[in-house]
């Protein structure tokens, strides 16, 4: 874990119940005091830059704590002489003009979760309240964010049963004005060889159709550089609403009751642990998942399957990147 970012789970509440969502939903919000401890924890890192990521749950449902954490981080980073940036993973439903102005002033980068057409989006991302149309609510927020000129990446997730719609959904998102994307697959699902083949052939068809725009950078695919694969072995750190520290990969299976204890407890930000002493990688993620879920045959199969598929996805996109841009 050498990256200079951590993700703050500012809430475990969400308006949606995505079929592939690994997050346990409950009425739990991070307090302002815990958020400040999390910022202090991050800024101890011996690095000239730091990035505070906001997630959850839907972070905009606890906007006062997002604001508190970001403004506190700005003041601290200024004192410490560090370059600071912000990132947020959001379903965009709560993005109104006031929040957009505040986020824009701080140059937030936004990861917006919109899976494609109304049909696919609403099948994969049903609302907790049946009165809410998730597609309409998210589309409105995405359009407002794009119009406000924020740095936005639209993440389209495909589950194995809808991987065959990925190219069509991509065209749909282009039609809304989005130009930067991450094409993602649902973690926690079992990807059979035939599903994997469909996923890859859909991406190939997107690249065939938009090769020139991808080459010129008019359309951006985050997968072509920097995306962590396999996602299931993501060694970035997250801070839960109560201040406890976790590996991101641990969180990806949290709705499955573990059969073993966490092998590397990391403590709580309130106890001022030293971030520089945490230098973990994929091995720690793998060992953590095996220790926590290895006795559960079904989960073990999914973990191994997702490691295998994620590795192939990483290699596939690295190959596409070379094909489009040479060795950069
Ligand atoms: S919007 Fe995000 S946090 Fe909410 S249910 Fe979907 S994946 Fe989970």
Description:
There is one protein chain. With 328 residues, the protein is α/β, with parallel strands linked by helices. It has one domain (5-325): Aldolase class I (TIM Barrel). The protein contains ten helices and nine strands. α3 (97-105) links the parallel β3 and β4. α7 (193-216) runs parallel beside α10 (297-325). The protein starts with a strand and ends with a helix. The mean pLDDT is 95. Bound molecules: iron/sulfur cluster. Iron/sulfur cluster is lined by residues 14, 16-18, 21, 23, 56-58, 91, 113, 125. Iron/sulfur cluster (SF4) binds next to loops.
SSE inventory with pairings:
Layout: E1 5-11, H1 32-43, E2 49-56, H2 63-80, E3 83-90, H3 97-105, E4 109-113, H4 118-124, H5 134-147, E5 151-158, H6 166-175, E6 180-185, H7 193-216, E7 220-221, E8 237-239, E9 245-247, H8 248-251, H9 282-293, H10 297-325
Helix pairs in contact: 1-2, 7-10
Iron/sulfur cluster binds at residues 14, 16-18, 21, 23, 56-58, 91, 113, 125.
Please name the defining characteristics of this protein.
328 residues; TIM Barrel; 9 strands; 15% strand; globular; binds iron/sulfur cluster
Outline of this structure?
Helices cover 42% and strands 15% of the residues. The protein is α/β, with parallel strands linked by helices.
